[in-house]
Design brief:
Helices cover 26% and strands 28% of the residues. By secondary structure, it is an alpha/beta fold.
Length: 384
């Protein structure tokens, strides 16, 4: 039995002060509040003093490409392991290994490397694969390499899925492309989340995709048709659909603060998911990099292609959480966006929450949202 005491605890609807969390066999067995203190004096338990810091569930990043100088599309096992370690250090305990548009051979290489690391990760656990592209619209390509963009190809997708198996959790595509409707129906039928981005879809085309089962928007507002009062586009269509959730890159660059608050007011924390969309510069900072076949430069933490196009981000999950709170969103709601909401999106009912029976994937943050330690399944695997 482990006992984490003297912590502020992020519960579903509130932050409670001076609480104690009891852990046994990698699971949370009890949350004891201050006025129940006498009930938790378990003899022989391992005591962990949180020193008044904030205890949150382990964060879950459903969209990350690289970190610490490593790109998960580089064809090596080490790149997957390095992202696992970087996530762990920033308070993220689970992640989706995310691809970029490329050849089928490169995609399959990535899938095989993820499979090799899955189950023996050195840090954060692999929750699956997020395949971003290559079935994207050239007009809204963003940093995606146009050389690799193509129409949805069911034969190609089946080859990838055959190798990925149940690791494939999410596919981002442009629903207006020829063949997309068939692919959406097929993927949804297999239990895979279909997300929309890098898309020039009209309001009507987006509505058709949602009717087929598409249910998520990748990096909302970025890489898609903008809102116009006579051409509302896919963002407004997503706002109208209760079941559709939105990713948000809250790095101070990709989304204006007012847009982040608008997304929160429309969708609430239940349908808003904080992501990093980080490239290999995460954890390293400014400099020149190659990503998705492009030369790019990171200046003052902002990654751009040579033509000025934004290229992913360098934000970490704990920084995204801090930024979200600083925009005026209540702390417990911002925490939910980084933990419970992505867990629910992925069907991980035992993660992303501090409650009885949940996995003891926990993170202790100081008052500046720096990670004090990261715990996975009841074991502290990182301490700053």
């Amino acid at each position: 039995m482990k006992r984490i005491s003297n912590v502020q605890v992020a519960l579903k609807h509130k932050i409670v002060s001076d609480a104690t969390v009891m852990i046994e066999d990698g699971r949370i067995v009890e949350i004891v509040l201050e006025d129940e203190r006498t009930a938790c004096s378990t003899p022989g338990s391992v005591k962990i003093d949180g020193q008044g810091a904030l205890l949150i569930p382990g964060m879950i990043d459903v969209h990350i490409h690289g970190a610490n100088g490593f790109d998960m599309m580089d064809g090596t096992v080490r790149s997957i392991e390095e992202v696992s370690l970087a996530c762990m250090q920033s308070g993220c305990t689970s992640f989706l290994a995310t691809s970029v548009s490329s050849t089928i051979e490169q995609l399959i290489d990535m899938v095989e490397n993820v499979k090799k690391v899955s189950g023996s990760e050195p840090g954060a656990k692999i929750a699956g694969i997020h395949m971003e592209g290559p079935y994207l619209h050239p007009k809204r390509k963003g940093m995606q390499n146009e050389l690799f963009l193509r129409h949805p190809d069911m034969e190609e997708m089946e080859k990838i899925l055959q190798r990925a198996g149940n690791l494939m959790k999410m596919v981002t595509l442009a629903p207006e492309l020829p063949g997309a409707a068939e692919m959406i129906s097929s993927l949804v039928g297999k239990g895979i989340i279909v997300a929309i981005a890098h898309s020039d879809a009209t309001y009507e085309e987006a509505k058709e995709a949602f009717a087929l089962g598409a249910s998520h928007i990748t990096h909302c507002f970025n890489g898609m048709r903008p809102i116009h009062h006579r051409d509302p586009g896919l963002v407004v269509a997503a706002f109208e659909e209760e079941k559709v959730s939105l990713q948000a890159i809250v790095d101070g660059i990709h989304l204006h603060p007012a847009i982040v608050r608008l997304m929160y007011r429309v969708k609430g924390s239940e349908r808003m998911v904080l992501i990093t969309d980080a490239l290999q510069a995460m954890g390293l900072g400014d400099g020149a990099y190659v990503f998705g076949g492009h030369q790019l430069e990171v200046v003052d933490g902002v990654a751009r292609l040579q033509d000025g196009t934004l290229a992913s981000s360098t934000v970490t999950m704990n920084q995204a959480l801090k930024n979200t709170v600083q925009l005026g969103i209540p702390l417990h709601e911002a925490v939910a966006m980084a933990t419970r909401s992505p867990a629910d999106l992925l069907g991980l009912s035992h993660k992303g929450r501090i409650e009885r029976g949940a996995d003891a994937d926990l993170v202790l943050l100081d008052d500046q949202y720096n990670v004090v330690w990261t715990m996975i399944e009841g074991e502290i695997i990182y301490s700053s």
